[in-house]
Amino acid sequence: xxxxxxxxxxxxxxxxxxxxxxxxxxxxxxxxxxxxxxxxxxxxxxxxxxxxxxxxxxxxxxxxxxxxxxxxxxxxxxxxxxxxxxxxxxxxxxxxxxxxxxxxxxxxxxxxxxxxxxxxxxxxxxxxxxxxx
Length: 133
Prior knowledge:
Elements: E1 8-13, E2 16-21, H1 22-27, E3 32-35, E4 39-41, E5 50-53, E6 59-63, E7 77-82, E8 88-92, E9 97-99, E10 112-119, E11 122-127
Parallel strand pairs: 3-5, 4-6, 5-7, 6-8, 9-11
Antiparallel strand pairs: 1-2, 7-10, 10-11
């Protein structure tokens, strides 16, 4: 029976179980989105993408609340890379929680953060992050 990409795969990261849609693994290497703006609002079409923020000034990617019609499914994931000199900060909208071991900021140029939607308004972020103080 062929797989269609809608299957959920359980991934373990530091003892936590995450459900990630199989298509997220296969699509993410094929879809690269470049953004030079100071602020980007994540949208469901970003699922499976690598978003490269190329600003030379500090910039942000906003994770919208479900009430804003974000359209992300549980297990949806995407990457955010600091492609320019400007540090990238992941900003949760009101009502959104992003669990992380460090900060929600890239460590330096070419650092990549990986975001996974765990459930309604609940996200997980890991990657090459600026260390928490």
